Task: structure prediction
Amino acid sequence: MTASERAAAGKAARSGAPRSSHAVWEEPPGRDPLAILAAQERTRVPELVPIRHARMAASPFAFFRGAAAVMAADLAATPDSGLSVQACGDAHLTNFGAFAGPDRRLLFDLNDFDETLPGPWEWDLKRLAASFAIAGRERGFKRKQRAAATLTAAAAYREAMRDFAAQTNLEVWYARLDVEALLAEVEDQQDPGEVKRVRRGIAKARGKDNLRALARLTHEVDGELRFVSEPPLLVPAEDLLGERGADELSEALQGVLEHYRESLPGDRRHLLDGYRFRHLARKVVGVGSVGTRAWVLLLTGADDSDPLFLQAKEAEASVLEAHVGASHFHNHGRRVVEGQRLMQAAGDIFLGWCPAEGIDGRQRDFYVRQLWDWKRSADVDAMSASAFAVYARMCGWTLARAHARSGDRIAIASYLGNSDAFDQAIAGFAEAYAEQSERDHAALVAAIEAGSLEAEEA
Result:
């Protein structure tokens, strides 16, 4: 279609899903969020599931972070425009952050793609806005302050999408948010103390690299580098399987690494070939991901002062799949990687995927990336209300950029329009869903207190 035809299609989509309709959230009869979580946990490592419960019980926002599957089921019953993008599937505010681009500049972008799948763009934006409403409640922000953040996120998305609609394909593809350039823009607008905290965060991000991981996560045993043992969060392979089992797993890992190697471009294969495998450990990660299988691998290059830490994380079906259809990739690790490459402005040079047989003999899908590469999430607990709104603008712009790379940006921009009608609807939905999340969190806590769910602090 021509640009004008695409714009007309976007505007016509309002008849089926008016912009004001996005404000509505009503809890349907028979809704059971704990049953959805329980269904997810059937395939997870049983001894780690209580840790997931404890982490999600910590607060309503912690519950929300772990409940992407619950919200996906809820969103499936809400209006959408029929315009599809490569969706993140879990676009809450702490799944955005800073990391190093291949050019070693610090970028701000989405950084979690476990649930990525083609789907409605509105679902990502609603999850993002709801996360600001819930986190704002926990911060003690007043309703007007929370509304300022959710309105800002929605407006930033709408305005950015309209900007991208007017750009060429290459301009959209090259667009990115450079952290240093962004900070220079807002320095005059923010409290000096706020800027100082952000700069400290940037410095910490740059210090979170392979050498930091070497010092923090490993020690020397009989002249060999080994992961430290910090059960249940970090458990060396020999502690899980015994020395013989660990040796057998390490041998099998060579074949897994070869599968992973084949998923990389030729130049990255050459780079990977300069490293040798040294040790393996199981690691507990995230909130909602707790219980999925995640391994960390230590490799070294020229010598022991040249480490590479890779994380191999189990990839299951996206939480969106039950509502939008299955991925066309047979390997869910590849689904994650392909989605990440499509949505991020720049990515990890070691990002790849592989199938692998687990210690229980079952075949599973994994994706692989560097463990630490200047990764840093925003410290929401330290933000003022004004900084919270600035962060909302960053996230809204970034999500629009990610969607503009894969979806029809002209049609979406036309659907959104020039007014704040859509922004107001999203803000209304966010506040209503925040209340829902508080009720869901209370139900989880009640189930733990009643003994029907086990929770264990790690």
Remarks:
- The two ends are 54 Å apart (CA to CA).
